Amino acid sequence: MSVFDAGTIEARWKRAEAALAATGATVLVGAGTPVGKPGGLDQAYPFLPHPQYYWLTGERRSGGVLAWEPGAGWTHFVRPVTADERLWEGDPVAPAGEDVAKLPEWLKARAGRTIAAAGSPVKGVSGDEAASAAVREALDDARRPKDAAEMALLARAVAATAAGFARARAALRPGLTERELQIEIEAAMFRAGAGETGYGTIVGAGDHTAVLHFEPGPRRIAADDLVLIDAGGAISGYTADVTRTLPASGRFSPEQQAIFDAVDAARAEGIRRCAPGTEWHDVHRAAAVVLASGLRDAGILRGSPEGLAESGAVALFFPHGIGHMVGLGVRDVGGRAPGREEGRFCCGARVRVDMPVREGFLMTIEPGIYFVPAILDDAGKRAQHRDAVDWDGLARWRRVGGVRLEDNVLVTAKGPRVITSEIP
Ligand code: GLY
Ligand code: MN
Ligand code: MN
Q1: For the chain, which residues make up each domain, given as ranges?
Q2: Which residues is 197 bridged to in the sheet?
Q3: Collapsing DSSP states into helix, strand and coil, what is residue 373?
Q4: Nearest Cα to 367, choosing from 287, 282, 281, 279?
Q5: Whole-angstrom Cα distance, residue 243 to residue 370?
Q6: 6-143 has which fold?
Q7: What single-letter DSSP state applies at residue 228?
Q8: Which stretches within 58-203 are classed as H helix?
Q9: Which CATH topology does 148-418 take?
Q10: What is the pLDDT at residue 41?
Q11: What are the pLDDT digits (tens) for 252-311?
Q12: Among 52, 60, 93, 214, whose CB has the most other CB atoms within 10 angstroms?
């Protein structure tokens, strides 16, 4: 059964049609097929429908294909429930539609037309390369702004995530392992309604806070450690993506406090910049300047904040983008404005979202300052930024590890709305 009501699906089809009509192609959007586990006989990884298919149908069943053609509209081909499924899985409900076995015949009747293949690959269909690329971009663009049904799911995902962070604060104490804290957080998220985690939960203590995507392990948290928690509960595929960095003892050291304050100021500046029409790279730049200013006030960087951002010196400590689209999956849509090359750098970091934000976009704002040995001990980088950094004074800062703060921000005409603000 569709996760979304008929009105929501109809509105999405209308939104998509407007963009698809311009391509003139007959369009197929595949749900995808499960990926079998190596040597796992009949075992497969949990199935994730392609987001383009899921957004257009609300269905999580594999094997479906949603077709569209100019003039005729939409046809949903679905995989019927088999006797084996009834035996092993109870009685799964297949979406209403045509048997997907009829798709080859349907396509044969359209021989000679330009076919665009979107979503996951459909067996036996290659699709015209240019038309497929145009249709993929059109579908992605149609689903960039979140609708009310998506925001309702996200509100529940945020509530579950908030429960996880509340549990983290209550449970956090020196002596606990990172893994034990992860278990506390995830159990609380599941109890509060999360169906799954939106991504691998990150819990890092001490120097592990400087590993951007750290996987929690058996390390025991020390009293003077920072603990970085990046976690999101997901409901029906929609996830929050939240980071908080906490002192294990409840009190920051002066160094930890200085770094935290700089990151928090950049977080506020990044959020403030989330207005319709603002280039995402400009949001990144504004936050990078604030971080550079904090690092200069701490005596770590030397020079003007604007110059330190432009030269990329700030990326020695802030090596990732300011954020990404979030919602349907932890990396939702993203992309770049037409005509822009992929992976353009800004302030020394590769910032993958490269377009102006619009009303309804849900973005993460996640500035961070990290003392990463692999960066700070790199001879080439040290030479390149020789005069911008107090290299000799760095030793006392390295113990901080890293601080990241991450919120999820809805871009609206009335100003940015931080949907994760209930998480202190
Ligand atoms: N949770 C991964 C990220 O923040 O991008
Ligand atoms: Mn995150
Ligand atoms: Mn993120």
Answers
A1: 6-143, 148-418
A2: 233
A3: helix
A4: 287
A5: 14
A6: Creatine Amidinohydrolase; Chain A, domain 1 (3.40.350)
A7: E
A8: 83-89, 103-108, 129-142, 148-171, 178-191
A9: Creatine Amidinohydrolase (3.90.230)
A10: 80
A11: 999 999 999 999 999 999 999 999 999 999 999 999 999 999 999 999 999 999 999 999
A12: 52
Strands 26-30 and 115-119: parallel
Region of 75 please: left (phi>0), alpha (psi -120 to 50) or beta.
beta
pLDDT at 93: 84
Count of Cβ atoms closer than 10 Å to residue 325 Cβ: 25
Distance separating alpha carbons of residues 32 and 63, to the nearest angstrom: 6
* CA angle 330–404–253, rounded 5-degree value: 155
- Nearest ligand 1 atom to alpha carbon 324: 5
* Ligand 1, pocket residues at CB < 6 Å: 199, 230, 241, 330, 366, 406
CB 155 within 8 A of CB 362: no
Q: What is the pLDDT of residue 39?
A: 87
Q: 249: how many CB neighbours lie within 10 A of its CB?
A: 16
Which is the closest atom of ligand 1 to the Cα of 243?
Answer: 4
Residues of the chain with pLDDT under 70: none
Query: pLDDT averaged over the chain?
Result: 96
Looking at residue 79, what DSSP letter applies?
P
Nearest to 287 by CA among 273, 297, 303: 273
Q: Distance (Å, rounded) from C-alpha 75 to C-alpha 79?
A: 13
Ligand 1 pocket mutation, candidates 229, 241, 242, 365, criterion most atoms within 8 A of CB: 241
* pLDDT at residue number 367: 98
Pairing mode, strands 233-235 and 238-239: antiparallel
Pick the residue whose CA is nearest to atom 4 on ligand 1: 241
* Strand-by-strand arrangement of the 417-418 sheet: 362-365, 407-410, 417-418
Residues lining ion ligand 3 (Cβ < 5 A) are 241, 364
Check residue 19 and give its pLDDT. Answer: 87
Q: Which residues contact 212 (CB under 8 A, 6 or more apart)?
A: 319, 320, 368, 370
Q: Determine the Cα–Cα distance for residues 379 and 251; give it in Å rounded to an integer.
A: 35
User: β-pairing, 362-365 with 196-197?
Assistant: unpaired
Residue 75: per-residue pLDDT: 97
Indicate the top mutation candidate among 201, 330, 353, 409 to test ligand 1's pocket, ranked by most ligand atoms within 8 A of CB: 330
Report the atom number in ligand 1 closest to the C-alpha of 213: 2
